[in-house]
Amino acid sequence: MKFRDEVEKRGGEFKNTVYSFSLIEGEAYCLSRWLRARKFVYDDVIAMVEEATEVRADARKHDFYPDPVSALGCGPSLFMHCYPQLYPGKAKNGCPIFISKPGVLNTDAMECITSLDGILKFHWHVMMHDYKKRLMDHKKAHPDFCNFQTVTVIDLEHLSTSQLSKRALSIVKTQTAIDSVCFPEIMNKTLVINAPRFFSMTWSIIKGWIDARTASKIELISSRKHWEARLKELCDEDEIPSDYGGTGPATTLALEKEYSPEGVLHEHFQLVHVGSSGHYNVEIPAGNEMEVTVWSRSVNEVIVSIVDENEKSKVYVGGVSFTHTGGTSDNDKPTSLLLTKERIAGPAKTKIKFESKAGRFASAGNYFVSCSLFEKK
């Protein structure tokens, strides 16, 4: 086979690009993915592998970012709150099920905690460390499994036209561009569910980012009754989250279990828009204690304090000055501040207060609050 011989002859990073999920996938299945992606036109396939080798070169120098916190610049649980994505189980054909919820993508919150560069690095981490491991683990348990693809659910519930900002589309396009070039033909089937009527226009844009063969594998289904039935045709019920009509753990619980930092019992997140002031209330149960971190890229100074919700004279954290000290481009990292040098012990009802120093009629900007609950020591 001409393509196989060329891969072996070039070896090195050219071969590593082709076998990005390792040799365990199997020669015939792996090579056929690349061939199908370019309709078996040899020169086009070679050009695609060369392009993919170049695209992944910088990420490869960093081992595709094995530490997700370093990649993002924040904990993955924060990212997943802003843009929920998870692998809840396996389809009947053995492929991982991937659920993505762009309908609740919060770009204002995302902007507070990471950068486009961080999102790009994190996507490399997911594909080359998380997703790859899931495939390899399933292959080891089921040696005959060779279908290194996904059954994907893209949930557009709550999607509005106001969410389709330039930044939101940049986030989706960044991930799609990598997958289309570097991981061809990994889509087994995609269900786009809860699609609003206006999405047809957006879909025509997104289709332009992906090849025709991939687009043919995508089904748009708005009716819950119909997409639940279709999902159950593809997956056993115990592999489907309960909020998607199955008997598996709900997606919120699954995300918390997978991404909460070690030792953290529960996390509360809130985007606070501060005009002249703003606040967020959090209750700490008995037997718990809480850490609070604030994230932003607003260059306007605010004074942040934590007081008792009912006894304003009871102060847990006095007024702390906070402002973003870095750059303001999409690829500049935001600034974070741990407010609680000592954890606040429960039971307590707290109010996290923001007071702007930008002036009475100016808006200070957006601030993302992350509250982590631990078992009280």
Can you describe this structure?
The chain has 377 residues and is an alpha+beta fold. Helix content is 37%, strand content 26%. It has 14 helices and 14 strands. The chain has helices at 2-10, 12-18, 27-37, 42-55, 57-61, 68-72, 76-82, 107-113, 116-141, 166-182, 199-207, 212-215, 224-234, 251-259, and strands spanning 85-90, 96-100, 150-155, 187-193, 218-221, 264-274, 277-284, 288-296, 302-308, 315-322, 335-338, 344-345, 348-356, 365-375. The strands form three sheets. Strands 1-2-3-4-5 form a five-stranded mixed β-sheet. Strand 9 and strand 10 form a beta hairpin. Helix 2 crosses helix 4 (42-55) and helix 9 (116-141) crosses helix 10. The longest helix is centred in the middle third of the chain and has 26 residues, at 116-141. It is elongated and about 75 Å long. It starts with a helix and ends with a strand. The model has no long low-confidence stretch (mean pLDDT 92).
The count of strands amounts to 14
Mean pLDDT score: 92
Content of β-strand: 25-35%
Biggest beta-sheet profile: 5 strands, mixed
Report, as a whole number of angstroms, the end-to-end distance: 64 Å
Secondary-structure content class: alpha+beta
Instruction: Kindly report the spatial arrangement of strands forming the biggest sheet.
Output: 1-2-3-4-5
Poorly predicted runs: none
Helicity range: 25-40%
Shape: elongated
Order of helices and strands: HHHHHHHEEHHEHEHHEHHEEEEEEEEE
Put simply, the count of helices is 14
Radius of gyration: 23 Å
Descriptive key words:
five-stranded antiparallel sheet, 377 residues, alpha+beta
